[in-house]
What does this fold into?
Amino acid sequence: MSRAPEGVADALVVFGATGDLARRMTFPALYRLAHRGELYCRVVGVGRSVWSDEQLRQHAAAAVADAVADVDRGALDDLVSRLSYVAGDADEPRAYQALRAALTDARIVVYYLALPPSLFAPTVARLAEHGLTERARVVVEKPFGSDLASARALEGALHAVLDEEQIFRIDHFLGKEPVQDILYLRFANEIFEPIWNRHHVESVQINLFEAYGVEGRGAFYDRVGALRDVVQNHLLQVLALVAMEPPSSGPGAVADRRCDVFRAMPAADPRHYVRGQYRGYREVPGVTRGSRTETFAALRLAVHNWRWNGVPFLVRAGKALATTATEVRVRFRTPPPLWWVADGPAEVPRHNHLTIRIGRDAGASMGVVVKRPGATASERVHLDLSFERQLGELPQPYERLLRDAMWGRHDLFPRADVVAETWRIVQPLLDDPPATIGYEPGSDGPPEADRLAAPHGGWRRPGAETPATA
It folds into this structure.
């Protein structure tokens, strides 16, 4: 086993190694790192099941086989050879004693808490009690609280025993390559920066559509809802990348600029918020009778700074919708009429946009207007780029995020101040939510949401070539 480079973790401890998250995400991500030759550490699984090392290895191999179409046997052997297991509950002292014995020669340890959020603070406290947090890094999953008050309480508990530099909060959207590409498209291409402002941009839309419902997750989802599940975290982080100023060099530069965006955003107004619930949701096992939890959220936000003042940011997300797709659409203002055409001034069709596809068929497209052949009329066309066809297979989010945690790189992990700002922004929507409105599965959500985007050209269904509304 190769020695970890200086500053890179030489041990990864996965709490909840026998659970669903580890099976679906963690072990496939570690396999992909091994396949790329970027897994330098041994991996210690911790779980409540009374397993042997060999049982964990079989579990990991099965998880990889389920997730990867063509498994590289050498990479899989490399991964399983690094695995060992410590049995014990996260609240049992003997588990930490056994863990301490297993880590006696480790220099830098990453603790990945693939656990329910209620166990984050107690687990970190017990790690500290047993002297296991020195030079350690702790990775926690969203949600980081359920509102502003609980987020602050969680941060207080974590910071009681850890420095901020030791905490890595996973929002897997920030690990998506197309999300990271937003910064490169903006700042590595001179053609965009001069027009990326209120003088040329009419509106920004961020849409996250999922065609499937909440089957199998009813009890979890009913406590959370669309706003907490994907808007407060995933989509606000994407919004910040679209709206932020150019970052400088040095640690924290990108996070600083993301936080600047949130500080410039007033709290969301419940009057500009529409909640929906797809018909049939209340029949899903685990959902409470008469539930008012939203499975759809649409809202209009603003960024009050010199670059974006007056530009609406329209955010929409939901379950059981017409398609499964996620995209950002920056819509530019319409130029003046064309005065030189033979039949007099001609209006230019509304079409200039840059769309970044984050989900399936990740890529980008530009909408431009050209002359229709043989006529003086204009024609709308798209210039399209597929990231995978042009750049090859994209790393998966957990692969990138676990690697960065092991290297100690913070850029793709939200800081405490960023998390607090996003909760501040959505808190009025939690305090004073409008009623949920029923909508049909397979639709674009409740029609009442159209009023939010109607003054700005209407919503565009992600993946579609034309707006869903006029």
